[in-house]
Each structure stands twice: as C-alpha cells, then as structure tokens.
Write a structure and sequence with these properties.
Radius of gyration: 22 Å
Low-confidence stretches: 277-286
Number of helices: 10
Mean pLDDT: 80
Helix content: 55-70%
Strand content: under 5%
Largest sheet: 2 strands, antiparallel
Strand order of the largest sheet: 1-2
Number of strands: 2
Structural class: mainly alpha
Shape: globular
Distance between the termini: 74 Å
C-alpha cells in the first residue's frame, strides 16, 4: 500500500453541514421581505404617492416577525447551528440594515441634502456599517461561547432598530392622512437623527435582554390566556388605528429599557425577562 493510499484511508470524514429546514425557511422569508421592501422603495413615486413606501414599511415589519420565528423555532427544536446563525445574519443585513437605510435616504435624506448628497449617503451608510459590525460581533461572541444562546445582547439588536425606524416612519405618515412630505418641517430631522442614534446604540456595550428564556410551551394561567387573546384580537380588528401607536411604543420601550436595566433589582429583572413553567404537579381529574 503506497503512502498516498494510507494518507487517504487515515483521513477523517468531513463533518456534515447541519441545515434545518423550518428555521431556515423562516430566515428565507425574512430575506424575501427585505428584498421586496427594497424593490418597493425603488418603485415609490414620492412625494406624489407614498403607497409603495407604506408597503415597504409593512415588509420590513414582517421581516421582524420572520426573524423572531426562526430563532424561536430553532431553540424549541434544539436545532441551532452555525449555518443558521450565518444565514440569519446575512438576511438581517439586507432586511434590517440596507432596507431601513435606503428607506430613510429615499424619503428624507435625498431631499434634505439635495445640494450636498454626500451627507445623506454618509448618514445612511453609517447605519448600514454599524449594523454589519453589530452582526459580526454577535457571531464572533456566539462562536467564542460555543453557541448563540446568551440571555443578553451586547448593543441594540438590529431587528429592533429597523422595527423602530419602520414603525416611527409609519406613525409619522399616519399622523397626517394627506401623505405629507417627511422631508419638510421638523419631521425632516427626526428620522436622520434616529438613524444616527441607533447606529451608536448597535455598536455600544449597552446590554439588552434576548428574551430567549421565555418558553412558548410553558403553562399559562387562564387569565393570562384570555388577556392575550383579547389583545391579539384588538390588534387584528383595530390594526389601522392601534399599530401606528403601539409598534413605535414597544420598540422605544425596549430601547430605553437597556438604559434603566442596570438600575432595576435582579428580582424585578427576572420577572420581566424570564419565565418559568409553573408546574404544581398533575392536575386533578374533573
């Protein structure tokens, strides 16, 4: 037996790449929503018609839902993998990095800085670059710790940043049913300022809860279940009136929570961020 054959026989088989269907399908949905959002932003005929912009906002928010589902499904099934983490980051960079940056540039920055377009490019690109750095840092920390199951995020998560930009834009457009031009008046400073602030927060060391310990399979009390059903029902029925208010409020509260979190006692923090399955033993037969 020659040396080449011995070396071949002595080689260990390459490790199989683990690709799980359902979580990666949700990630693909996230990426699809990001691409459609970009398409709608390009097709928008502003300031004459903001219909495509509103559709783009909807697709960015839908991408947030897909992003929430892919991680949750992976953890529930115990099928988290390096491939899924990398695929998720690539999708996030499109849906929550490029799409919001291009949105604010198209709606506000390109008009406010019409005589100095490089300023608009710079503001939008800062958000995109900081988002990419945030994702790269997360992947490195997850690889160093041996997984992505940490209870905390370092820096404001990019899906939440995109959700805040999209929901606030939706609120500003809803506030005036005449589809006002957001590049005029005081509105022209809100979105660019928010974009820069979120850029700093994404690469900051402020820690945010990941809420990964909240178990969807945990037992809930009957009143909690009723309240949840009524809340979801109100959102569905009155979504045109509630969503423009409640979505920016949710993302803003999460943003501010990172600042006040260190001042909260561990007991209260545990009640907010974690949930344990209350199992008092088998229920008595009816």
């Amino acid at each position: 037996m020659d040396e080449k054959q011995k070396a071949t026989e002595g080689e260990k088989p390459a490790p199989a790449l683990k690709i799980y269907f359902l979580p990666n399908l949700m990630t693909a949905g996230n990426l699809f929503c990001g691409f459609v959002a970009l398409t709608k932003i390009v097709e928008a005929k502003i300031p004459d018609n903001y219909h495509e912009i509103k559709l783009a906002l909807g697709f960015i928010l839908a991408a947030c839902i897909f992003d929430l589902l892919d991680g949750r499904l992976a953890r529930m099934g115990g099928v988290e993998s390096p491939f899924g983490r990398e695929f998720d980051s690539l999708a996030d960079l499109i849906s929550f990095g490029a799409a919001p940056a291009f949105l604010v540039h198209r709606v506000v920055l390109s008009k406010v800085f019409a005589t100095r377009p490089e300023i608009g490019w710079c503001i939008a690109s800062i958000y995109l670059i900081c988002g990419a750095l945030r994702l790269a840092r997360f992947n490195c920390l997850a690889a160093m710790s041996g997984g992505g199951g940490s209870k905390e995020f370092m820096g404001f998560p990019i899906p939440a940043a995109a959700g805040l930009v999209a929901s606030l834009t939706l609120f500003l457009m809803w506030e005036d049913q005449s589809d006002r031009d957001l590049s005029h008046g005081p509105w022209s400073f809100i979105l660019p300022g928010l974009l820069l602030f979120l850029s700093v927060m994404m690469v900051s060391e402020v820690k945010y809860p990941s809420f990964k310990t909240l178990d969807l399979k945990a037992r809930r009390t009957f009143p909690k279940m009723v309240i949840t059903i009524v809340f979801v029902g109100c959102l569905v029925i009155l979504r045109k009136y509630i969503l423009p208010f409640i979505l920016p409020a949710i993302f803003t509260i999460y943003l501010l929570y990172g600042f006040i979190r260190p001042q909260i006692s561990r007991k209260i923090r545990h009640e907010i961020e974690e949930e344990e399955d209350e199992d008092d033993g088998p229920s008595p037969a009816p």
